[in-house]
Amino acid sequence: MQYPKAAGGAxxxxxxxxxxxxxxLEASYLFAGIARRVQEYTAANPDxxxxxxxxxxxxxxxxxxxxxxxxxxxxxxGRRETFRGYGPEQGYAxxxxxxxxxxxxxxxxxxxxxxxxVSDGAKCDTGNFQELFDRRSTVAVPDxxxxxxVDTNVMAGRTGRQRNGRYGRIVYLDSVRENGxxxxxxxxxxxxxxxxxxxxxxxxxxTRRQLKKWVDWALREGSVILFDAAYEAFIRTPxxxxxxxxxxxxxxxxxEFRSFSKTAGFTxxxxxxxxxxxxxxxEGGDGRPVRLHSMWMRRQTTKFNGCSYVTQRxxxxxxxxxxxxxxxxxxxxxxxxxxxxREALLRKGYAATGGTDSPYIWTDVGGDSWAFxxxxxxxxxxxxTPGAGFGRAGEGFIRISAFNSRxxxxxxxxxxxxxL
Length: 420
Ligand code: PLP
Hints:
The protein is of the alpha/beta class. 36% of the residues lie in helices and 15% in strands. The structure holds pyridoxal-5'-phosphate. Pyridoxal-5'-phosphate binds at residues 56, 121-123, 126, 146, 196, 200, 228, 230, 259, 261, 267, 272.
């Protein structure tokens, strides 16, 4: 290997070494691959009117109650008497209390405001939380999967190299038609298991009985469940759990991630939170129990300086009577989009799940998912997400997102009905 010459012409024999784990990562992140194909298509077809039902970003603006609260907070920040600098790293008490009351106490779930850590979104939290575990911990993930859970563990050096779309040392849990896209706990041990319900990408929700199996497994195995409930607000079916903490025993084995992104259109505004029960313990290096709550507190106070005051006031307003009614209306709107898409696919003879308690419709395309993606792009100018991008078990499916205007959804349906 040739090393570049150092300044002055002397031969340089050493370069700073990279974290080799990054070399194990797949070359292109799923959405970058999609963006490239869409870009290539639009370059060749500049007049094409693309309808994007791919990336799961919201399209509807913030609720008026949220905007009003944020505007008031900006004015506070503009006056000496009410100006606030650094806030508490864990989040302001006003927001943590609103979350504990509205998201949990009202559903009969006991979560204390001190167990809530406000952040700038669930991507960071679901990505960062793995830092608290030993590098040799084994990780179980559903397949297909939200890529952040896997890639952050790869970066941390917790996996082997990738072969045939799967990293060594990860326990993959196939979420397939046969199990209704809700995997059973593995028969082998895993220290950490990521679960996500309502699921991205499959749109599946887990019943109380299914989640109880997972909690019982984690308690038996001494494992931790990292439960991503970013799409909780889309649950409408009575009896479907909104939180892992609705399951007895979960406070001893689970952490929950939530986000205002899809709940209240905060993808660009940024706010989420993580619930770490006070009593949840893992084993420290000396064999003694350590509290995940203390560790996450230490991690956040060291590496995170809080979500902005203005944003937290906006998030608080999501729980006001007007804010709650307005955000519910927006979610109902997306759910109606989802229903329209799903029914159009069913009419065309495609099996589709999700789209009832979820903004995603997971469609069985019966073949190569990138080829189907290309077909829809070429013949309908509709962008979807190929299931293979979410994992090996996602092959044969595409994810269609209901986040769009009604006019675009109806246009996409019209074109899909022609193309399929
Ligand atoms: N978790 C899941 C399952 C998601 O699909 C997403 C976003 O698409 C996130 C977390 C990230 O949410 P946030 O915008 O709060 O970072």
